[in-house]
Every structure is written in C-alpha cells, then in structure tokens.
Task: structure prediction
Amino acid sequence: MTDPARGLPAAPRAGQAALRWLLFAILGLFALFYLMPLFVMIATSLKSLEEIRAGSLVALPARVTFEAWGTAWSSACTGIQCEGLRPYFWNSVSLSVPAVAISTLLGAVNGYVIAQWRFRGANLIFSLMLFGCFIPFQVVLLPMARTLGFMGLTGSISGLVFVHVIYGIGFTTLFFRNYYVTIPVELVKAAKVDGAGFFRIFWSVFMPLSLPILMVTVIWQFTQIWNDFLFGVSFSQAGTQPVTVALNNIVNSTTGVKEYNVDMAAAIIAALPTLFVYAVAGKYFIRGLTAGSVKG
Amino acid sequence: MAAWLERNVPKLVLAPSFVAVLVFVYGFIAWTAWVSMTRSRLLPKYEIEGFIQYDRLFAAPRWDTAINNLFVFGALFIAVSMLLGLLLAILLDQKIRAEGALRTIYLYPMALSMIVTGTAWKWIMNPGLGIEATVRGWGFEGFSFDWVIDPDMAIYAIVIAGVWQASGFVMALFLAGLRSVDEEIVKAARVDGIPTWRIYSAIIIPSMMPIFLSAFIVLAHLAIKSFDLVIALTGGGPGYATDLPATYMYAMAFSRGDLGQAASSAMVMMAVVFAIVVPYLYSELRAKRD
Amino acid sequence: MEPILEIRNLGKNFGAVEILKDINVSAEPGGFLVLVGPSGCGKSTLLNCIAGLEPISGGTIHIGGRDVTHVSPKDRNIAMVFQSYALYPTMSVAGNITFGMKVRGVDKAVRARKLQEVARQLQIEQLLDRRPSQLSGGQRQRVAMGRALVRDPQLFLFDEPLSNLDAKLRVEMRLEIKKLHSDLGATMVYVTHDQIEAMTLATRIVVLKDGVVQQVGSPAEIYNRPTNLFVADFMGSPAMNLIPARASRHGNGTRIEIERAGGPPIVLIDGRIDGLPGDVVVGLRPEDIAEAGFRAGDGVQEAECLIDMVEPAGADTFVVSLIGGKQVTARLHAETEARPGSTLALAFDLGKVSYFAPDTGERLN
Result:
C-alpha cells in the first residue's frame, strides 16, 4: 500500500496543477469531515457547561477544564449508581483480556488443524464455522440467555467471556486457517520425520511463524469485544456491565442536568483503548478488516 | 491406545470448537426457530402452533416501520458508503504525498464502538446546541437541522453516522483492490492513449467486481445487524420512528417479554442475512476448491 | 543379504481411486533406488507411504527387516529430503539440523558434535547462524540434506530434491548426492520425474505409471531392454524411435518392412529373432541409427532416407526423417554433411533393437 505506483503523470500544464490543488482540497475537506466529530468530542469535553450552552460546537474551549473527565471517570451516574465509568472500564478490561486470549488460542489451534492436518470432513467443519460468523447474533440471544442461566453464569463477567469466546472462534479460526494454508504441508512432514508430534510442531514450528497473524487476530478480537454492545447489554447486570453499556447509560440517564461535557469525556474514555490500538498497530487492524471481509 | 491417540489428536483438538459451534450456533438457531413457532410469551413454550408469530409480526405496525427503516437505511448506507469509499480510494490512488496520514484519518472511525459514534453524532446533531445552534450563531438564523427529533428524518441522521463510521473501511478495501490491478494492463492502456478516467471506468473498476461484492456483503451485514448505533443515537425514537429489526427484536426479548415475537423477528433477520451471505460464501468456498 | 527396504503388495486408495496398485519393490543395503515416472504416477505418494506420512490401504512395508507398516514416521529410522526443502523458517541453519535431535532428547554436546561433522561434510559451516530466507537455493538444498544426514538413518528418502534448482546447479548437486551415496554407503530411495537423474544416480530403477510398476531393473536393463512401449518412450533423451512395421518369416529370422511415403519401404532382416506377429513396433535408440559407413557389425543394415530436419547439438547432430509415419531421430557425428531435403544413407543397427506388440505395448524379444 505504500507504493503508489499508478496515478496521473505529473504534467507541467497549469490545468493539471489546478486539478492537483482541487484534489488536495477535496481530500482535505473529507479529512475534516472524518476528524470533526473527534474534535467536537474533545473540545466539548474540555469546556464547562456554561460555555457549551453559550458557545459554538466547533469553537475551541475558552477555558480548558478537566472537570468533566473527572466526573466521567469516577462520579457520573449510570442510572441509580454514580461511580462514573471506572468500574465498567475495568469490567471491559477483565472480560476482554481472557476472551481475546482464549478465542485467539483456540483459533490458532483450529486453523492449524484445518490447514495442516487435513482429514475427511475438516473442510465441512470449516464451512460450518465460517457460516457461523455471519449469523445475526439476535438469533442466539434468547437461547444463550437461558443457557447462561442454566450454567449459573447469568450476569457474570465469566458468562460474557464465554459468549465472546464462542462467537469469536469462527473469525479467529478463519484468520489462522487462511494464514497457515499458505505454508507448505511439507513442513509438517519434515517435522514428523524429525520426530516431533502434533503439539511440538505447533509450538516449535508454527507459533514462531505466527506473529503477524497473531497481531491481526488479537487486535481484531480486542476491537470486537471491547466495542461490543449487544452481548454486553443482553447478558450483564448492574455491576458487571462493560464500558459501552455504561456509556450508553450515562448518556441516556435522565436524572439531573444533561452534562454534555461529561458525556463526551465518557465517550472518549470508552473509545481510548481501541483508538490507542489503532494508532500503534493500525496496519494489523486494517489487515484484519480486509481479511475478515475478503476471504482467502 | 497411544497410536490411536497420536492419529486422532487433530480431530480431538478440533472437536470442542466444532461441538461448540454446532450447539451454540446451529443448535441455538434451531431453538429460536422452534420457539418462533410457539405461543411463547414471557417463558418459552414448546408446543408447535405454526406460523402465528410470523402472522403477528407482519401485522404489527412497529415491525412494518422497522422493515421499512431497514430498507431505507440499508440502501442509503450501502450506496453512500460505497460511492464515498470508491471516490476516496480513487482520489487517494493519485500518488498523494500524505496518503498514509489521510488513510489513517479516513479509517479511524472503524475502530470506535458504534455507541461512541452514536453518542458523538447525537451531540453534534443536537438541535438546541449542536450544528443547528452553531450555524445559527454564524448568522444563518433560519438554519434548521433537527433530524434526530424529527420522526420523518431521524433515520437519515442514522445514515449519516453510519456512513461516517464505515466509509473509510470501504475506502481501504477499494484502495487495496485498485492497487492489485495488474500494472501491465494499465501501462498497455496508457500506451494506447486511453485517458485516465477511461482507464478507471473501463479497466480498473470492472476488474474490481469481487471487491464490490465483498464490500456490499459486509455493509449489508452491518446494516442488518446494526443495533448499537440506533440505540445510542435515537434509542429507536422518536416513538418507533427509527426502529430496526434488531431493536425490535431486543425490545420484544428483553423489555416486552414476548419471546415468540423476539424469536420470529430474529428468524426473519437471519433469513435476510442468509439470503445475501449464503450464495456469496458458497461461491467463495467453491471457487477455492476448484 | 536382507534388503533394507521391502515393500510387498502395497496398495493405496483415496476413496474409490486407486493411487497405487500392488507395488512390490525392495532396496538392497547400500543401494540407490530411484522411483521414476511422469507426474501423477504415484511415485511421491509411494515415498510418503514408505516414510509413514500417508497410511496405506494394503500390503506391508519392512525397513531393516522390521515390519513398519503401522509405525509412525519418527520410529521408522528414516530421514527425508523434500522438494521444497521444508526448512523451518524461524530456525537458524543449526537449529534446522539439530531440531530432530532436540526433539529426541539427544545430549547437547552430542548435538553440537554431530552438527559440526555434518556441516563440514556439506561445507556449510559458515552458514550455521543464518536463517533459511538468507540462503540461496543450493545452500538450502545442502541444509535440507544436512538435516537428513545428521540422523544417520537406515534409509534416506529424497522427494525430487533437485527440481527447484537451476540446470547447472542441478548437475552439480546430482554429482554431490552420488558422491555422498558412495561415501556413506547408505541406502537411498529417490523420487524424480527426470529420467536423466534416474539413469545417472540409480543402482536400481523403478518405473511407475498410473500407480503400477512398469519395470524394475538396473539403469542399463531399463535403457536397453524396456519392458513395454511406455518405458521405452519415457526413458532416454531423445526418446527411443518407435516405428510401426510389418514382420514376416525370413529363413530362420524375420523380415521387417517399414512403410514410408514417397519411397520404397525400408526392409531390414533380423536373423536373431523369429516368431514375431505380423504387426510390430520397432524400437531403436537414436544412437543405433548412424550415418552409413560409420557403423559396421552383424545387425547393421543401410537404407537411403530423406532428411527432414537437422539439429546440431554440439557434440552430436540429430537428423530427423519421416519413416513408418513417425519422425525418426538418428544421432550422427557432429561433422555430418546431412542437409534438410537431401537424402542420406542411414545405417540401422539391430544389435539392441526392441520389438513391441502394438496392441498391448508389451516387449516381444
């Protein structure tokens, strides 16, 4: 992607130069369009409520205050409780870490089996898993709620971890399978002749090869799970809600004065982890997105 | 025993995931399908009663609104995202110096939760204090932008937020597609003296049909499943004006206590998704096997 | 001597498709057994079966007198070199060579000593710290061989190890493998589709087609007395001339008559054979057709032939003439005066002639 090999040959004519400026102007305007909401969120979060009521949406704060951030983090009301976003933020952390780890590990092993230890029916199993990625989750909400109750996991973080692992396996398997399928099968054969078994080959030969796809999968899963709202709102209860649900509750809580600056600070806090991941590992994020949609 | 274990280790390793998918995806679909054929209300009943829930569903004005909204939202969301994505991809493909930075800017919304997106746009489109107030503050007193509270326009507000979030992703897909077009074909066309716009319209874009299809599938899938965005932006309101099948299903399942309706609406959603995705996946898997 | 490798009645099916049919092959200690055949003939599958990498559907495999039919690859006392080399990409050269020993729990000091031995033998001592991606094709090939050598197995298996190298390097490595074989005195099984590799390396060749063994024999036997039309055509370059002809009794021998367009038939008398059927295919290697006057002997007979094409190849010149409806190639000396369109007297040497039945393809003499 870093090699823009095609394009208009730079011509010396004035018309071409004007076209070039137009091009930059259009691209710049679009950049503003995409950046504007982020800017508005940040600016609003740093303003006092009076300034918000008096001033303009797109104006920089006249007096910067971090009050709203403090409120959003530790004392905003998500309904009857007023502990801010903090406990829910940690809920999201403590559910996404194990969920990402387990689903990635399972996906790696599954992909390894499907791509490298082909057996009759493996392709059918893969197809079934792949179709499972595309179901609208609404169709499993009701039975899953009952199943979690049956397992004693209703409203618990473990229950959410379980749900995210189950419905993450399809994608993680897809990622690893598509990566491992490009590795010649002779590698496994050579390792077999060398005396290594199934797990030894996985650990010593395939794992060291897997860093890029591991990054893609971890980032994909983390983004999906952190940003999830449907499972969070369906299977959590007061106290175990993930940050997205808490954010929605803060924004839509009807008690007291509407504090837009707190809403915006809370939204940024909820978005920070995934934005951070995007900033430091955007390459892998994009690869995951495109791999998730263009299979093979 | 050891030899048997050695031979079957791959199958044993795959088995738990396979069973999980079988039970928690296919088993659950079957369960929902079953319940959608019963008179279940607050608690599931298991006597099959036929299609009464579907009859109720299609007779419900709220569902009618939800389906209409899905088509309006889906069509606009897909069309605008694709057009915008394609335009941005082509513009970015012109040897732009700041390409990397621009790409990063266009794509970052995709990393956000739809709840965050909805919250941000809800504030921006806030009639009292948002864009409307700002533009009026600039001296355009007659300016009005209150789509989020206008039952007729609220669905378009959701389209705006959705396009803002997803179009960068379409851009990334298309840009990758443009870059994968055989360089020699483009060179040959240039040598033949074909103008740049014709090269795009006659050679490059037609060769990207599979990517259009992928983008369409992903966007359609997003549109049908979109739930978070509506909840955060309008909560399905004003009234039921921005209900989508996803929010309808959720309301039936968790606030109305009408499992039969929830199940049947979920099944309709799945039917729509599968009508789009199954032929696509089927052809993908087939193409790979050949 | 008991064979190191003995395969009896081996069969292999993929579903309803028979990949290998009733294979019986053995390799003597110190032997170099080459499995050769066109792509898809099952030769690589057979090698994988010997290695235990593919299950077999019937028959038995013995290695070193031990029945290993149901033994896993790691316990068969074999080593294998793969076509793509299959080097572990994340391990150094040293790591690649010692991985097997590490898995088997061989002592560290022993590993280091064996690594040095093998590295010296293959002249890759200076490469031990590199990654496979930093090596040239030939160097990778050596590392792959090193990984096999360090095992010191009863049986070496090679799966088309040279087919990814360029032509010059291939010849070099071929010689090196041959030298290695004689230095080690090891038993080797080698798969290739290249009949020249087969001829130069083998002590024994197995020619396979469609999963069936066509012929087993020494390179000379295979070359001089191919057992059927397929082997005759497959082994040797340029290929053996296979010319349809009529045979009839002639005293104690046989009169062979070959039709040709625009001229009288060529008549050859073979005094050493009788009882051929009326229709035969005459098999003559290009080197058994010479310019008249350059070859003398018992079975040599001459005929005027119209030359269609002349291909100088440096040491030799090949000429092509249309005889019996076939383009017949003759190998002449480099200084021949033959020109396309002219006629030339060619000498047909029946000393090594093969006869085949046109319908079954089987050898008749």
